[in-house]
Design a protein that fits this description.
It is a single chain. With about 190 residues, the chain is α+β, with helices and mostly antiparallel strands. The protein contains 4 helices and 9 strands. The chain folds into 2 domains: about 80 residues, no CATH class; about 90 residues, no CATH class. Helix 3 packs antiparallel against helix 4.
């Protein structure tokens, strides 16, 4: 993001509010504008004039700066922090196999690259939703006068439903990913 993009964002906000407003001032530089050398960030101010910002660099940060596989990205400077973005080319990994998934209301159907079909029963998921729907309905009837207690109980049972649903879906996804790998390695 260049200075032009930041300025355009301010102008867009100005059209909504009538006056430009910046919540937190920051500077953003692309990888050709700055230089980091010996723990000092060097930013151009005018031609051949630079602002030097000393950085607190530990071993972890030095490892990043000395890694030749990483490319420097942009730098964002705020009142308290300096954020340096790095990029790295990722290696292409050849998949062991493929899986096609069809989700239905009460089942998950998977077809592997070996043309094997696996079905997972998701009726427990709809049962869970129904059970917690009924629990929340009873709570609404019982505590309709006490709004604070109603909200607290609703949040409690909604969180329980969410966690149980996530656990069930995690188990199903784990099982579905193990099946094709067994078939591909044999």
């Amino acid at each position: 993001m260049s200075a032009c993009e930041v300025a355009c964002g301010l102008v867009r906000n100005m059209m909504r509010r009538k006056t430009p407003y910046v919540r937190r001032a920051f500077l953003k530089f692309d990888n050709q504008t700055f230089k980091i050398q010996d723990g000092v960030l060097r930013i151009p101010e005018k031609p051949r004039q630079f602002i030097s910002i000393p950085l607190k660099i530990g071993k972890y940060q030095r490892d990043f700066l000395s890694d030749l596989t990483l490319k420097l990205g942009s730098v964002t400077v705020t009142a308290n922090t300096v954020t340096v973005v790095f990029s790295k080319a990722a290696e292409v990994i050849e998949p062991m196999g493929y899986i096609r998934i069809d989700t239905n209301e009460r089942s998950l159907d998977c077809v592997t690259s070996n043309r094997e079909l696996f079905k997972y029963n998701l009726s427990e998921l709809s049962r869970l939703h129904h059970v917690y729907f009924e629990k929340r309905r009873k709570i609404q009837r019982k505590f309709w006068g006490d709004r604070r207690k109603l909200q607290k109980l609703q949040a409690k049972y909604s969180a329980r439903e969410k966690h149980r649903t996530e656990q069930l879906m995690h188990q199903v996804s784990k099982k579905s990913l193990k099946k094709p790998n067994k078939g591909a390695s044999e």
